[in-house]
Design goal:
heterodimer, A: 359 residues, mainly alpha, 17 helices, B: 314 residues
């Protein structure tokens, strides 16, 4: 197992280098002069020259790349042109919202998708099976931003069951972990500022921090806000997972050992969950793993619709504002997240299926 | 198999079996038996009709006059500001949008943009992807390694994110969006073609071609690639569906087709603010996108089942 993990890590190196080359090139491939594009038409030649010098745009390209790589490895992604804020700081403020949304969507997609798929396979060719499969076909064909708008209209506006946008109602008070437990007094010594910064980062995960601070009102509010965006974002993965669960389980249910299990008088529940699902699960896990990238990319659209203050909305706003350093940092961060999640998925297969380890 | 059996079979072949059919004819027959695939084809036929006959632009260009509306009841760009956001009525079947343009006409005209991006980006991606995959699979060794590692890196990015990155470099616009979507789908086709080339390369007829001295380039294009077509057709059809969805998403964000162009995603993006006051502005373009994507998905699934029965999911 350890050998497999090391192997996977080594294989990651070219991919990481590739990603860095792509994000590095983004700024350099802009048609025209990057300095003019970023500073605007009205910049004076002196300003342009100063900007080029400051950004190192006058150096040979490989020096620029190495310098970029060096600063990325130090965690320095430059400063946003728009806010003059460090890109890495902006990202860390936005990351929790995106993670919360993605996990919410994943939860919706897996729970509904797997249950629907199992029932459809078990009652093969029944009415439910037909409805699930048609639903799944429509699910993969629906633009998530449209579904989001429709959900917002029906449940947020007409029925008023759920809040239509944002992460939390204005006025609902959510203390940070620091405020709730006076961490600054406990960690007042050296390195205390880092601890506080980290707990402040954790506090941005509203659900986690409302549980940790025991603020049930805020928890309920945050969960309510999470429902609609999660359904919108989770719709396509849900459909894909349902289809995969159904076909994978159908295949397994036709196997001899299922007949054997039934013949020896096991309860249907045991046959289905213990014997069939266990063997049908690997392709389902594969599909679930592949959906993480889809979800993160979909978050860009979902966050825009639901005014969700995450990385996706940030990247769109910054593209429209032509704030390239910020876009560059954002794309890099999202790609890295996807790569590492895929790594985790690969390792978990190796754990689930010993054959992979010995390939 | 013994010699006698082979002789008998060859002898009996003419009498016993029905008229031999080609792969394509056979696939077509299977496709026509698939109800869902037929539903997909009907949707796509309607879409094509909408795109071609929205107005008589084809004739108008030849004759040299302004195009007259055919299918589309009104000019998709004509604004009636006083009647903006008017709900569906007998006069305007799907209502008017936020600047008083007829939504039905805009949807009918929007089919052109969707088809253009869908077909255009996929053709572009297939040509480049197939070439890369074929060369990688055919030459093998370091070429294969370099090309496929490059493709792996591209696959590491979620396609929508990479497309957004490409558009942010090229600048927003319908054509730039088409290129962006094409670029991000190249690796999918490269992988498919490479895999097929690897298996076809080992077939006896390729060996035979090599024995009679067919040059490698000719062998690749005449003997190997035509036999890798089926998975490419299936993936291409499904790829058009994805491309249309991604294009709608990019236009929705304001990165694709620019106003006032009639494009479904852009219609949704511009009408977004009116979702609570005039939901019809948002509902109908979304349904158009969904049906189109559904059509390509149904046809793609049907093609997969009919071209390669072994791949059947159920």
């Amino acid at each position: 197992m350890a050998r497999y993990i090391v192997q996977r890590l080594v294989m990651l190196i070219p991919v990481l280098i590739g990603i860095s080359v792509v994000t590095f090139s983004m700024l350099r491939l802009i048609p025209g002069d990057p300095a003019t594009v970023m500073l605007g038409e009205h910049a004076t030649p002196e300003q342009l020259e100063e900007f080029r010098e400051r950004m190192g745009l006058n150096d040979p390209i490989y020096i620029q790349y190495l310098r970029y790589l060096q600063s990325v490895l130090r965690g320095d992604l430059g400063r946003a042109l728009l806010t003059k804020e460090l890109v890495i700081v902006e990202l860390s403020q936005r990351l929790p919202a995106t993670v919360e949304l993605t996990m919410g969507a994943m939860f919706v997609a897996c729970s509904v998708g797997i249950i629907a798929g199992v029932i459809a396979a078990y009652y093969h060719n029944s009415f439910f099976d037909l409805v699930t499969m048609i639903g799944a076909l429509i699910g993969v064909s629906m633009p998530i931003f449209w579904l989001g708008l429709i959900l917002m209209y029906i449940f947020g506006f007409k029925l008023r069951w759920l809040p239509p946008s944002a992460r939390m109602t204005v006025g609902v008070d959510l203390q940070t972990l620091n405020e709730a437990y006076h961490l600054d007094q406990i960690f007042s010594g050296q390195g205390g500022a880092k601890v506080i910064a980290f707990t402040d980062f954790l506090s941005e995960f509203y659900i986690l921090s409302s549980v940790l601070t025991g603020n049930w009102k805020a928890l309920l509010d945050a969960l309510k806000h999470l429902v609609l965006p999660s359904i919108a974002l989770g719709s396509i993965p849900m459909a894909i997972i349902a289809r995969m669960t159904r076909s994978s389980l159908l295949e397994v249910l036709g196997e001899d050992y299922i007949r054997t299990a039934r013949a020896k008088g096991l309860q249907e529940r045991v046959v289905l969950m213990g014997h069939a699902m266990k063997n049908a699960f690997l392709p389902i896990v594969t599909v679930i793993g592949l959906q993480v990238g889809v979800l993160l990319a979909g978050a860009i659209l979902t966050e825009t619709i639901f005014s969700w203050p995450g990385m996706g909305r940030l990247v769109v706003n910054r593209i429209l504002a032509r704030d390239y350093p910020s876009v560059q940092g954002n794309v890099l961060a999202l790609a890295l997240i996807v790569v590492f999640v895929n790594l985790l998925v690969d390792i978990s297969y190796a754990y689930l299926d010993p054959r992979i380890r010995y390939e | 198999m013994s010699v006698t059996t082979a002789e008998t079979t060859a002898e009996d072949f003419r009498f016993r079996t029905r008229k031999p059919t080609s792969l394509w004819r056979d696939a077509w027959r299977r496709l026509l038996r698939n109800k869902l695939a037929i539903a997909g084809m009907i949707i796509l036929a309607l879409l094509l009709a909408m795109a071609f006959f929205a107005d008589d632009a084809l004739i108008a260009v030849i004759v040299g006059r302004e195009p007259q509306p055919l299918f589309a009841p009104y000019d998709p760009y004509q604004q009636e500001l006083v009647r903006r956001r008017e709900p569906p009525s007998g006069e305007h079947l799907l209502g008017l949008d936020e600047t008083g343009r007829d939504i039905l006409s805009r949807i009918i005209h929007g089919s052109r943009a969707s088809l253009q991006v869908g077909l255009g980006s996929v053709s572009f991606a297939i040509v480049i992807g197939a070439l890369l995959g074929a060369v990688a699979g055919f030459l093998g060794r370091w070429v294969d390694n370099v090309v496929m590692r490059l493709m792996d890196i591209m696959l590491a990015f979620p396609s929508m994110l990479l497309a957004i990155a490409v558009v942010s470099i090229l600048g927003p616009g319908l054509m730039n969006m088409l290129y962006a979507i094409a670029v991000v789908s190249i690796p999918i086709y490269a992988r498919i073609v490479r895999a097929s080339v690897l298996s076809v390369r080992e077939q006896d007829y390729v060996l035979a071609a090599r024995c009679i001295g067919v040059p490698p380039g000719r062998m690749l294009f005449r003997n190997i690639l035509p036999n890798c077509l089926t998975p490419l057709i299936v993936q291409g059809t499904l790829g058009i569906a994805t491309a249309i969805l991604n294009a709608a998403g990019l236009s929705f964000l304001g990165l694709g087709a620019q106003p006032p162009r009639a494009e479904w995603g852009a219609m949704l993006g511009q009408g977004r603010g009116s979702v609570f006051t005039a939901p019809h502005i948002v509902i109908f373009p979304g349904i158009a996108i969904m049906l189109t994507v559904l059509g390509f998905n149904l046809l793609g699934d049907g093609l997969r089942d009919s071209l390669d029965p072994r791949l059947r999911v159920d």
